[in-house]
Amino acid sequence: MQELTHWIDGAHVKGTSGRFADVFNPATGEVQARVPLASTAELDAAVASAAKAQPKWGATNPQRRARVLMEFVRLLNRDMDKLAEALSREHGKTIPDAKGDVQRGLEVVEFCIGAPQMLKGDFTDSAGPGIDMYSMRQPLGVAAGITPFNFPAMIPMWKLAPAIACGNAFILKPSERDPSVPLMLAELLKEAGLPDGILQVVNGDKEAVDAILDNPTVAAIGFVGSTPIAEYIYGRGCTNGKRVQCFGGAKNHMIIMPDADMDQAADALVGAGYGAAGERCMAISVAVPVGDGTADKLIEKLVPRIEKLKIAPYTGGNDVDYGPLVTAEAKRRVLGLVESGVEQGAKLVVDGRNFNLQGYEDGFFVGPHLFDHVTPDMEIYRQEIFGPVLCTVRAQTYEEALKLAMDHEYGNGTAIFTRDGDTARDFANRVNVGMIGINVPIPVPLAYHTFGGWKKSGFGDLNQHGPDAFRFYTRTKTVTSRWPSGLKEGGEFHFRAMD
Ligand code: NAD
């Protein structure tokens, strides 16, 4: 069995804690590798050597740092197929989806190539008599990122690219469920010219995370994962005086107005609800048709589309719609929530509970589920399911639909499908959610905008990627300067001919 490593000072390093976690092939249920789980001492050593390497990198001009990222982009494109394959093998998502995972990370690296521009400070000439004022954006030193399993390429890149572009050293603690791609990213960055020690990949679980939270050298932490862990990391990290931003779970509502194109809405819902087996923080997990007539029409359009979905391993051809969940535990949890929905009185219109894939009986596949007549008190509505389960909550009016999205504790993304600009505009203005789609089901902002949810989906200030990332990974210093007159008046500057 393959034994994975950490990546320290530009090389693969074996774990020394003696603790490991299994990495599964979710399609077969087999353990395909084991990943070392770092001890506090291993994490502290990685931070110490990152801190040693950082001053030189921080003093390297931003254009040279950007060139490393430029080359990194080239290498990501060169190795796209290899990265996608490794990603699918551990995560279970389809190859096109895995390529999207790499691509959406790569685009943030591209944005970070603009570091020389993004890091320019402000300047005021003659803020007072003979006084100039200017600001500088300086690196924090050592920053850390703790990332989830569901985007093992994209989210590490959303963190490490801006942190490194700003001149920091970075400690990445990826998900222990799919750690291979983050290690491959580190190899590519070395090949691109990143000095050793500037990116350390420390694999691990709670012990490594707690060591990051308590290490006094770590100045900032970016976290993405479930909300209970986000709250924990935010609380402990802030108490320890660090700059912390944490992005948590979601329950994204899509409102379907009676005037929406029902075919478009149904197509959008199937992709956004079941793509990647629902394991996306921007998945639509709640459909809110407005009016019973709209609901009936929508369900009628959804059922045949859902029944046609092809669920198979990533090796099953180009027409696979989604693959297995990441672990057996995730499968148990999702099926348990489906049972609770049935027990609490929701109507299970498409029942995927008995889904079985011949030849892959031990894989973590879950069939698609569609619930109708879900109410806000049910567990399937309150909790993030993170599986191929779409809940329909019927609303009688637009205001009722808006209130549902607003009253839910999560506020990551939401969408409205309508042909009326006034309704769409009102929705975008009033809803208390961070990312809004208008006739777009998964409104993930591009690299040069920023990504972040509200309410229990985001803790701390500033979003991920875009200009916010350059603010998060730097500190502002403002200089007020006056140069008393002297030489200018008294000095002799002319090049005189000898008398
Ligand atoms: P998770 O919270 O289980 O794990 C995230 C990270 O935290 C991992 O690196 C893990 O090792 C670490 N961790 C887990 N338990 C810990 C503990 N007790 N103490 C300290 N660290 C711990 O999340 P996941 O299952 O990997 O990812 C899925 C979740 O991430 C979903 O809730 C999803 O909505 C969310 N997510 C959010 C966004 C966003 O931008 N808002 C993006 C992607 C995923």
From TrEMBL:
Pfam families per record: Aldedh
A biological process from GO: thymine catabolic process
Official protein name in the record: methylmalonate-semialdehyde dehydrogenase (CoA acylating)
GO molecular function terms noted in the UniProt entry: methylmalonate-semialdehyde dehydrogenase (acylating, NAD) activity
Keyword Oxidoreductase: yes
Organism, scientific name: Rhodobaculum claviforme
Domain Aldehyde dehydrogenase: 13-479
SUPFAM superfamilies to which the protein is assigned, alphabetical: ALDH-like (SSF53720)
EC class of the enzyme, as a word: oxidoreductase
NCBIfam families: MMSDH (TIGR01722)
E.C. no: 1.2.1.27
Segments passing through the bilayer: none
